[in-house]
Design brief:
The complex is a heterodimer of chains A (392) and B (294). With 392 residues, chain A is α+β, with helices and mostly antiparallel strands. Chain A is built from 12 helices and 18 strands. In chain A, the strands form 5 sheets. In chain A, strands 7, 8, 9, 10, 11 and 12 form a 6-stranded antiparallel β-sheet that branches. Chain A has a 4-stranded antiparallel β-sheet with strand order 1-6-2-3, with helices on one face. In chain A, strands 14-16-17-18 form a 4-stranded parallel β-sheet, with helices on both faces. Classes of the chains: A alpha+beta (392), B alpha/beta (294).
Chain lengths: 392, 294
């Protein structure tokens, strides 16, 4: 699950990381009021940043500076409602604009190849890390946290030294790296990224100038498998940016991704669901969705999945492909029969059920006069023909 | 011979009294697998599967009483990491974890403990391992198999069944079928299984089933280039039409930052001399065209 910058910053703050204050605003008036508060507190300028879950908001004009509350309000009204990669901006983050001396990148990820948490740092901050990886891979430094002991101080130090930090910023970096790791662990995150991690020029309370490392941006994605033990994080799910069917799918415990085609797919298993989509396309059709009913789906799940598919008016044909292992074919067949008895509109459907309890399933489907297929290729071909026939 | 499981497998089922545990244990026994024990804390001394399998409170007790050397885990995600560690502690050599939905961060220390103990973990979130005609550990349907000489390794569950069924339909039998699981952190990788197949005298050809996300297929391709020249190989990669940035069911299946695409994987495999199928049903033909004689 992706979460917004402002929420990611809250999670960093909770682990004691240095994050400058911010406010979230949903209207130009709120932007203006927030900007005024930061300016009154001594900020020279404020920054207004679109809160969207897609990258590239800076390039899209979703991040702007303002010198007065009035200007912030104008900037805010331009950003709010803006479309960034298909997402409408509904809220912005407002904060004091920092005086940036230098920008770094610092991120923690789960690295599959080494099966460890890897921290990556680069002195080339402020640009997309993928870009740095392409242009100058040598500029990215990595350490692997110990799988049993976690991120060790010497590892964090070596990373800070590698990006050129020295006392006193080095110690700050070590604490921040430890905080990123702690944030990941505390929330079951699979990515925690601070870009830029910036050296900013400030004036201390006694009037002397000083430099300090702060987290100016934050990006966190949470491991969906960990959410069940962090119920408080569920509140960070941004329903504004979600397809309404997503919530329904979640309730059913199925994986559903809405696509643009006309052939609704219901499959068990992610790999087979992708393959079914690939074959629909191979035979000249377009899948309307990715839908994995999961392992061991019972008939109520099947019924709910069918409702989700049919809720899309573009669906002209349905392809059900179940290869039973832990899933039992007869349970799926019973669910399909129930679903068809209740469904709002008639859509041609081809069903293929093989594997565990396939014989019982075949008997049920035959009695209920379902169109069936034996092989996956045959099922995909039939569904494509049905969709084309229905479109004619 | 076969890899991972076979005639010498003595299986303990962790979570034998649960719905899935019981159902699939019956299927394993029916297939001829030696299921010697089950565990269910608090029910030690009772029996499962119509009185035929003794239940123990702990894996250690099961090992001591029955000589179990392999375990399979049908325990919910909240308890599965502990179940794996319990097996390791009891000295089990091969641990197959079927459970899906284990948080990735839980698995990082677990795979490390498994590695340090010299044990082998298959999964989690995997369908298990079958050596046709010898032993079936996990949930792969028995009916799709046929004994033979093709090793099958896959990141997927049901897609593996599809591929194996296609081979059996074509009269091509399998030495061992291994579902390694679709999670980001798994105990045994493509590469590990390819090494085992390479060393298995009964495996004469290999089928690999991959999917989008990560770089495991590319690593396997590099190994194939180095060590498996001359071994007939065919592959299928799911997710050619998957949209980038969306997690396609499996936690591991996501195209991110333009990497992990099916196209990249297919290119790497073909460069290594591996034939890549457009549909799982083409796998038998590609194997034969690669010089495999069943």
């Amino acid at each position: 699950m992706k979460i917004q910058e402002a929420d990611a910053k809250s999670l960093l703050l909770a682990q004691g990381l240095p994050v400058p204050p911010w406010e979230v605003a949903r209207t130009a008036e709120e932007v203006k009021a927030a900007a005024q508060r930061f300016l009154d507190a001594g900020a020279g300028r404020v920054v207004v940043k679109a809160q969207v879950l897609v990258g590239g908001r800076g390039k899209a004009g979703g991040v702007k500076l303002a010198s007065s509350a009035q200007e912030a309000s104008e900037v805010g009204s331009r950003i709010l409602g803006m479309d960034i990669k298909g997402i409408t901006v509904r809220k912005v983050l407002v904060g004091a604009a920092a005086e940036i001396v230098k920008e770094f990148y610092l991120g923690a990820i789960i690295d599959r190849a080494s099966r460890r948490i890897v921290l990556m740092a680069s002195a080339e901050g402020g640009v997309e890390i993928e870009e740095v990886a392409r242009q100058s891979p040598g500029a990215i430094h990595r350490v692997s946290a110990d799988p049993l002991l976690g991120l060790l101080a010497f590892q964090a130090r070596s990373l800070g030294l590698a990006v050129g930090l020295r006392d006193p910023l080095l110690n700050q970096f070590v604490a921040i790296a430890g905080g990123l790791y702690a944030t990941m662990k505390a929330n079951d995150a699979d990515l925690v990224e601070v870009n830029p991690l910036a050296v900013v020029a400030e004036t201390a309370a006694d009037g002397t100038p000083r430099e300090r490392l702060v987290c100016l941006d934050a990006k966190i994605t949470l491991d969906d498998s960990g959410l069940s033990r962090h119920l408080e994080l569920e509140a960070l799910r941004d329903l504004d940016e979600e397809d309404p069917t997503d919530a329904q799918a979640r309730k059913l415990g199925i994986n559903f991704i809405h696509l643009d085609g006309s052939i609704g797919c219901m499959v068990n298993g992610a790999g087979l669901a992708m393959t079914t989509m690939d074959l629909v396309k191979h035979f000249g059709g377009e899948p309307a969705n990715f839908l994995d009913v999961g392992g061991g789906a019972r008939h109520e799940t099947v019924r709910g999945a069918m409702e989700l598919i049919l809720a899309d008016p573009k669906v002209k044909a349905i392809l059900v492909n179940i290869f039973g292992g832990i899933t039992r074919g007869d349970e799926v067949a019973a669910g399909l029969i129930e679903a068809r008895a209740q469904q709002a509109r008639a859509v041609p459907m081809v069903v293929r059920i093989v594997g565990t309890n396939a014989a019982q399933a075949a008997r049920l489907l035959q009695e209920a006069r379902f169109e069936t297929a034996t092989s996956l290729d045959e099922a995909a071909e039939k569904a494509v023909a049905m969709a084309k026939g229905a479109a004619r | 011979m076969s890899i991972l499981v076979g005639g010498d497998t003595r299986l303990v089922v962790q979570g034998i009294t649960g719905r899935e545990g019981e159902f699939h244990t019956r299927a394993s026994i029916a297939y001829g697998t030696k299921v010697v024990a089950g565990t269910r804390p608090g029910k030690g001394g009772q029996t499962a599967i119509d009185g035929t399998v003794p239940i123990f409170d702990t894996v250690a007790q099961a090992v001591e009483a029955t000589g179990a050397n392999t375990s399979v885990i049908y325990i919910p995600a909240s308890g599965a990491p502990d179940a794996i560690l319990e097996s390791v502690d009891a000295g089990i050599g091969t641990i197959v974890c079927i459970t899906e939905g284990i948080p990735a961060l839980d698995m990082i220390p677990v795979v490390e403990v498994v590695r340090r103990a010299g044990a082998r973990l298959i999964g989690p979130n995997c369908p298990g391992v079958t050596s046709p005609g010898r032993a079936k550990v996990g949930i792969i349907p028995a009916s799709i198999h046929m004994p033979g000489r093709v090793g099958v390794v896959s990141r997927s569950g049901t897609l593996t069944y599809e591929a194996v069924q296609a081979m059996t339909d074509a009269g091509i039998g399998q030495s061992t079928c291994v579902g390694i699981g679709g999670d980001p952190i798994i105990g045994t990788t493509f590469l590990d299984v390819l090494r085992l197949f390479h060393d298995d005298p009964e495996t004469a050809a290999i089928v690999m089933i991959g999917e989008i996300g990560g770089s495991a297929e590319e690593e396997a391709a590099a190994y194939a280039t180095e060590h498996l020249r001359g071994v007939p190989m065919a592959a299928f990669i799911a997710g050619r039409t998957a949209p980038p940035g969306r997690r396609m069911g499996h936690a591991g299946a996501i195209i991110s930052g333009g990497s992990g695409t099916a196209a990249e994987k297919i290119e790497a495999l073909e460069a290594a001399g591996v034939r890549v199928a457009d549909s799982p049903t083409q796998l038998p033909r590609l194997l034969l065209e690669s010089g495999f004689r069943p």
